[in-house]
């Protein structure tokens, strides 16, 4: 199941925005000042780098995944992804909620940034080591097969290296995200090529485990080296233990929230391995990766829409709600068409990408792709809650939907395998969206949802869009024609 949460780009946007613009009070204020526009431009640059990181990894990642799945086979591929999911769940605890707190601390104390980075890095390193050993022990007790043990040993190193993601927060605050994005994307693409080469020469599972570990080591060595040259190297002398105790006291709620979200994302992988077979999990993973491929689209749109929505909220409440309504209707229509197209073509896509060993994945994909509808809708609705300061409602919705997801998985997986897990995913995502709409005390979320499927509203949007498109096209033709006449 794909993770659906408030993207880090939005957290960065909120952190970097002026306090006056973060207010959700219904006050009509003047247009953005020159300084505020400059800040928003920096925020948009940060978001653009984050999106570039996501998109540049997406398609090469799918290609390498398909080749790896073919090469390793459903069983080994399923076991590896099970240990990755297990590491992700434990890693959500090892982060200590510092992905959010780090930004807050770095912005509050600009003169103490070096001390903050060293302190948080040490805290996360200690937590990562504890979670690594616990992960290896638990997986070995649950599945004594040597392949499981080998995979979890390598997969758990992700927790160790992610301790240095505090650098991301540092560079976000200093509006220099490309410093970490460039090495991450460059090393990722390099190791995609190395993995393809290893597949060509028929390498074993151990080779790919080592390549994945080496990829992490090279990436973070580059980032840490750059940071050490630009600023001061990480040092125990800079660690502030009083700050560490204070941050731990503040972070326990965030730790629970991170754990909840990652459980929501990975619980189907864990339960499939326990209640079904590694082969079934392997089929499920390849189907989900195709389904998740399209979630980059609403992420890109939501990042671009956020500054505009903030401004509309301040200037004209009615225009703000109208824009949200149109966005929801467009998201519903696009995701519906996408789900129908992928569902109809799943029987062709799966054999083409993964081969005949993954034929079961086609039936899983036909079901799982329908989760795209609530995912597209939630991207718009989460923006509304974020602007209104009601993002806790998303957490409550996730709690209820996680319980629903686990219950359906336990009920269906023993009889339906990966198809049962896909059904649970679709129901759980729709559950999150419905819970968010129902829990909104103002009633606006529910009103927007009702208008989303209103035929007259949909028809008006189509007419408006066609007029705007025609106007843009005529303007383009006139401008080019005028240039041509002038040149002559």
Automatic annotation (TrEMBL):
GO terms for cellular component: membrane. The chain crosses the membrane at residues 79-98, 119-141, 147-164, 185-203, 209-227, 247-265, 331-355, 367-386, 393-414, 420-439. InterPro entries: PolySynth_Transporter. Keywords: Membrane, Transmembrane, Transmembrane helix. This is Uncharacterized protein. It comes from Chitinophaga flava. The lineage of its organism: Bacteria, Pseudomonadati, Bacteroidota, Chitinophagia, Chitinophagales.
